[in-house]
Amino acid sequence: MSKLKVLSLGAGVQSSTLLLMACKDEIEKPDVAIFADTGWESGATYKHLDWLKIEAGKYGIPVIIVQEYNIKYDCLNGSELHHGMYLMPIFMRLNGKLSIGKRQCTSNYKIRPLYHKVRELLGVSRRARLPKDALELWIGISLDESQRIYNATAGWVFNRFPLAERFMTRNDCELWLHNNYHITVPKSSCVGCPYHDKRCWQDIYSVPDEWADAVLVDEAIRHGHPRYEQFLHNSGRPLAEIDLRTPEDRGQIPFDFYKQERITLFAKSNPLWLPSNH
Questions:
Q1: I need a surface site. Which of 8, 74, 195, 215 has the fewest CB within 10 A?
Q2: Which of these, 10, 3, 47, lies nearest to 28 by C-alpha position?
Q3: Would residue 211 count as lying in a domain?
Q4: Contact assessment for residue 48 and residue 13, using Cβ atoms and an 8 Å cutoff
Q5: Residue 278 above 50 pLDDT?
Q6: Residue 198 C-alpha from the chain's centroid
Q7: 163 and 255 fall within a common domain
Q8: Which residues contact 222 (CB under 8 A, 6 or more apart)?
Q9: Of the candidates 164, 194, 224, which is a domain's last residue?
Q10: Mind giving me the DSSP string for 151-165?
Q11: What are the φ and ψ backbone dihedral angles of 5, each rounded to 5 degrees?
């Protein structure tokens, strides 16, 4: 059995860079790129994924999308519960103390479906024994995230990190994407991911349908555990109560606007002054 080289495609900055570098022959081409769909990525990510699929296809790299479950629907109907806990790292409050659950969604919604697809491509059953390193799995972890580099637990899988091998950081990836394709790639994560920072939540808030979905799930999980109150937001408050409006949303004029106005007025009153850094 020949070794299968698979790019684990998350459609974010790093994995997109890997795929597109392969398109330009800056690295070798994988046999296939696989996107494991949780069912709850942002619309921007799905749009970018559609473009990646077309672009990679021009260079003979198939992009396969697999999905076994939908994390949003599983949260809504409780089918994601495992021993009373959600597979997403939900924030939990008990007696005023806030903690976070174990992150199990990646293995269940990403890694397992990808492995199942690989076995299908190799023509073996899900229970069949495979030789060591039958799969070389390319993962888009960059040098600045080297703490996330890990060995696969399955003996038939060899994890490889081509970006880290080339000492490329996330910033290097963003620069490469800009220089070669003139694109900015959206962050890839579930709409209701509890790891979102304020900027990510603001991005979700700016898309009404996605914000409504996040609020709906946040309310659905609140009492999914018999002892804990559960939340998507790291404040331990209902998502609908979080003020995510930007200063512009509140009708405030951005600081840069005032700065530019001051520069303009100063230049008019001092015609010989030529700003060099503005």
A1: 195
A2: 3
A3: no
A4: no
A5: no
A6: 15
A7: no
A8: 229, 230, 231, 238
A9: 194
A10: --SSTTEEEE-HHHH
A11: -105, 115
Q: Residue 275: which domain range?
A: 248-278
> What pTM was estimated for this model as a whole?
0.86
Distance between CA atoms of 99 and 113, rounded to whole angstroms?
29
202 in a structural domain: no
- Coil/strand/helix, residue 257: helix
Same domain, 90 and 185: yes
Final residue in a domain of this structure, among 165, 194, 223: 194
- Specify whether 186 is located in the same domain as 252: no
Longest dimension (CA), the chain: 81
Q: How many CB atoms lie within 10 A of CB 138?
A: 23
Q: How far apart are CA 181 and CA 20, in angstroms?
A: 9
Q: What is the mean pLDDT of the chain?
A: 90
| CATH number, domain containing residue 157 | 3.40.50.620
Give the strand order in the sheet containing 229-231. Answer: 97-100, 91-94, 229-231
- The whole-angstrom separation of Cα 94 and Cα 24 is 52
Length of the chain counted residue by residue: 278
pLDDT at 57 over 80: yes
**Could you give the CA distance from residue 202 to residue 43 in angstroms, rounded to a whole number?**
15
The C-alpha atoms of residue 67 and residue 234 are separated, in whole angstroms, by: 28
Q: Which class for 1: exposed (0-12), middle (13-18), buried (19 or more C-beta within 10 A)?
A: exposed
Q: Please count the structural domains in the chain.
A: 2
Query: If you ran DSSP here, which 8-state letter would residue 108 be given?
Result: I
**Continuous H helices in 24-87:** 43-57, 71-77
